[in-house]
Design goal:
The chain has 251 residues and is of the alpha/beta class. The protein is built from 6 helices and 14 strands. A hairpin with a 2-residue loop joins strand 11 and strand 12.
Length: 251
């Protein structure tokens, strides 16, 4: 048997549900994504929300998100992105609906949730104390396979403008991950596109946004024509996993 996790990322909600980002109503888009998840994935154990949940950092935007998530009836865990306000997230979110815990045990796996957001900055960085906590935790994890979740890409994507605003201390993070034989997966958002690479024992996955997508391998900012999407992960207790992207289907 497996445990199913669905990753939702880069929702960019506004406090005004009629507001748009790049000609996309982000609330309407996320609502349609949630409806598709409800229809097709009622066996989901956890929704993993990997940052840029809000576009305007408003209390109202996080309330809108929590309402949509609560209607699914699936527990969720959230980490902030560069557009988010972590303090407001912790204040608004009901932990029984959306937890902001930094670690979860689920389906025989350990899920480590990292905050890579830096106030008033597009690129990301993981604070020294959090890296130290991660290194200590992973050095003591010998039984459970580990998945890492963060907002900013810890690897280069081959897109000039995006690689300039990725994770500033990616080398420090990856050194810790490479030294952990139990770490199998690292998932992230921020780049609004599909990306996969494997380095040593770790599979790195970027997941598209629930609103607009960015054109891969572009030197400058450019939008793609692909629809909203989310990632489905199936985790097996022996450390095996399967994952794929599902794009929003037409109404």
């Amino acid at each position: 048997m497996y445990t199913k996790i669905i990753q939702i990322t880069d929702c960019h909600l506004f406090g005004d549900r009629n507001a748009q980002l790049k000609h996309c109503n982000t609330y309407h888009s996320l609502r349609r994504v949630c409806a598709q998840i409800r229809r097709q994935h009622n066996d989901t154990t956890l929704l993993l929300l990997t940052g840029d949940l809000s576009q305007d950092k408003s209390v109202e935007s996080y309330h809108l998100l929590q309402t949509l998530i609560s209607e699914l009836g699936i527990p969720a865990a959230a980490i902030p992105g560069n557009h988010d306000n972590p303090q407001i997230m912790q204040t608004v979110f009901d932990p029984s609906i959306i937890t902001t815990a930094n670690e979860l045990a689920i389906g025989g796996w350990r899920l480590m949730l990292l905050n890579s957001s830096v106030p008033q900055q597009v690129s990301g960085k993981i604070e020294k104390y959090e890296l130290e906590r991660l290194a200590h935790r992973l050095s003591n994890e010998t039984d459970m396979p580990v998945m890492i979740a963060l907002h900013h890409p810890p690897v280069a994507l081959g897109s000039t403008w995006l690689d300039k605003v990725g994770l500033e201390n990616a080398d420090e993070l990856n050194t810790i991950l490479y030294n952990s034989k139990q770490t199998r997966v690292a998932i992230f958002g921020h780049a609004h596109q599909v990306y996969y690479t494997k380095i040593r024992q770790i599979a790195y996955f970027c997941t598209p946004s629930t609103c607009r997508q960015f054109l891969p391998a572009s030197a400058e900012f450019a939008l793609d024509i692909l629809p909203p999407a989310y990632r489905v992960l199936k985790l097996y207790p022996d450390g095996d996993f399967q994952t794929h992207i599902e794009f929003l289907q037409p109404d």
